[in-house]
Amino acid sequence: MTGWEEIRDEVLRRIRARLWVPGATIPTEEALAQEWGVARATVNRALRELAGEGVLERRRKVGTRVTLHPVRKATLDIPVTRREIEARGQRYGYRLLAQAEAEPPPAVALRLGLPPGGRLLRLECLHFADGRPVLLEDRWLNPEVVPVLPDFHRISANEWLVAHVPWTTGDIAFSAANATAAEARLLDLAEGAALFIVERTTWESDCPVTWVRLAHAPGYRMHTLL
Amino acid sequence: MTGWEEIRDEVLRRIRARLWVPGATIPTEEALAQEWGVARATVNRALRELAGEGVLERRRKVGTRVTLHPVRKATLDIPVTRREIEARGQRYGYRLLAQAEAEPPPAVALRLGLPPGGRLLRLECLHFADGRPVLLEDRWLNPEVVPVLPDFHRISANEWLVAHVPWTTGDIAFSAANATAAEARLLDLAEGAALFIVERTTWESDCPVTWVRLAHAPGYRMHTLL
DNA sequence: GAGTGGTCTAGACCACATA
DNA sequence: ATGTGGTCTAGACCACTCC
Question: What is the pTM of this model?
Answer without folding.
Answer: 0.91
